[in-house]
Specification:
elongated, 7 strands, alpha+beta
Length: 188
């Protein structure tokens, strides 16, 4: 008997996956569920789609979204800097989204001024800015973890989720074009 019940339940589960179900109340007040549409005289019918219960995770966990909103991360580094590479890998391991800035090629004068204000005019790299919460000069994993934990960022990337994409450095501002100097006509 148990085997038949299990077999019937498995059949219903396999059949219901991705199937549409109908819910309606008949004239006697009995609630009915069926794969087939109800009789034509039934007025109030609810149609349900079963089997599509995936959770959207492309934007990260709620804690990551909240931390990103409240304490956005700005990371100042240069590509050839070894401590910068280690710090960038640390952020990627935790799945932290950040804005990557190269202070040697600022996109604007305002960016350059912001970096100078944060470092006191020096060129200390890497520099991590955790919203209004904390600014960290240099790279020390424990210091990064403490600041990111305090801001509410998750300690590891979500398993199976896409890792935080390597942010693209802002391109340097284009210099205004200057006309080429006139050339003297060639003499014969």
């Amino acid at each position: 008997m148990k085997a038949w019940t299990l077999l019937i339940l498995m059949g219903y589960a396999a059949f219901a996956t991705g199937a549409e179900m109908y819910r309606w109340v008949d004239e006697k007040g009995v609630v009915n569920y069926s794969r087939d549409p109800p009789p034509a005289h039934i007025r109030k019918v609810e149609q349900k789609k079963l089997g599509d219960n995936r959770v959207q995770t492309s934007e990260g966990s709620y804690s990551l979204q909240l931390a990103t909103k409240n304490f956005p991360i700005t990371f100042y580094a240069q590509p050839e800097c070894e401590p910068c590479k280690a710090a960038r890998a640390h952020l990627a391991k935790r799945g932290i989204p950040f804005v990557d800035m190269n202070p040697s090629r600022p996109a604007s004068a305002a960016e350059s001024a912001t970096f100078k204000k944060l470092t006191g005019g020096g060129m200390e790299l890497p520099l991590l800015v955790v919203g209004q919460l904390k600014t960290i000069k240099g790279y020390l994993a424990e210091e990064y973890d403490a600041a990111l934990d305090q801001a509410g960022y998750p300690s590891t990337a979500i398993p199976g989720a896409k890792p935080a994409e390597k942010p693209v450095e802002k391109p340097p501002a284009a210099a205004p074009a200057t006309p080429a100097p006139p050339t003297a006509p060639a003499s014969k």
